[in-house]
Write a structure and sequence with these properties.
mainly alpha, 244 residues
Length: 244
């Protein structure tokens, strides 16, 4: 009987570690939602364009095509195109990497953080008022959008409900439509509210840090991406598969 207990201990320990890793994943995605708020604060307040929320960016592009003041066809188009490139890269990484989740997510995090760090460097010396130099303007937009497209493709493959890290429309809809007032049972209400709060807080932080230039919030975003991803993957069993 004691021998049977010993045989089950490794299995139980492994299950506990997987459960803890799942909790860590949700926490990591919440931090990434906060990072999205910072990134879009920089892009919207600095360039009048979204680099993470492509729904808003498509709308901004429509405004620009209609000739509305304060919006740019070039900026919105570059952001949209760069985002699609990032999503393409993210999709390829997810399908061609080995099936071990640890290596896959580490690679994605390093790439995303590197793009944000490059965007921070490219933003040094950029003047928001005059939008000069032009190469810095488009370079920063493109680098940020590629990073966000890469992230979106990766999070899409992780498929954690209510934690897309970049859009909140369906999350907010779920909070209301699944509430007890609507006859629902408030499923995942804590997670949903936390994701909204995280992005809100990120936007506040991004707007405040933008007073000191673009480099600081972008560099902070890159650091956050690396830290939360490395903390999460350290909890993973080395053999855990991508599609588990």
């Amino acid at each position: 009987m004691d021998q049977n207990k010993d045989e089950h201990r490794p299995v139980a320990a492994s299950s506990d570690k997987v459960g803890y890793a799942d909790t860590s994943l949700r926490a990591a995605l919440l931090i990434l939602s906060l990072v999205t708020g910072i990134v879009d604060a920089v892009s919207v307040l600095g360039f009048s364009v979204f680099t993470a929320n492509m729904t808003g960016n498509v709308v901004f592009l429509g405004f620009a095509v209609a000739g509305a003041r304060g919006f740019s066809i070039e900026r919105s188009a570059i952001s949209l195109g760069a985002f699609l490139v990032g999503a393409l890269i993210g999709g390829r990484l997810g399908s061609t990497r080995s099936r071990a989740r640890r290596g896959w997510l580490t690679t994605v995090a390093v790439c995303e953080a590197a793009l944000l760090f490059l965007a921070a460097l490219a933003s040094i010396g950029f003047d928001v008022g005059s939008a000069k130099p032009t190469y810095s303007l488009y370079g920063v937009i493109a680098l940020m959008a590629i990073a966000m497209g890469l992230r979106n493709a990766t999070v899409r493959q992780l498929a954690v409900p209510d934690l897309t890290t970049t859009v909140l429309t369906l999350t907010l809809t779920g909070i209301a439509a699944d509430s007890s007032l609507a006859g629902g049972k408030n499923p995942r209400i804590g997670r949903r509210v936390a994701s909204v709060v995280a992005m809100f807080v990120g936007a506040v932080i991004g707007a405040l840090l933008l007073r000191y230039g673009m480099a600081l919030p972008l560099a902070l975003s890159g650091v956050c991406v690396l830290l939360v991803t490395f903390i999460y993957v350290s909890q993973l069993p080395s053999s855990r598969m991508v599609d588990e």
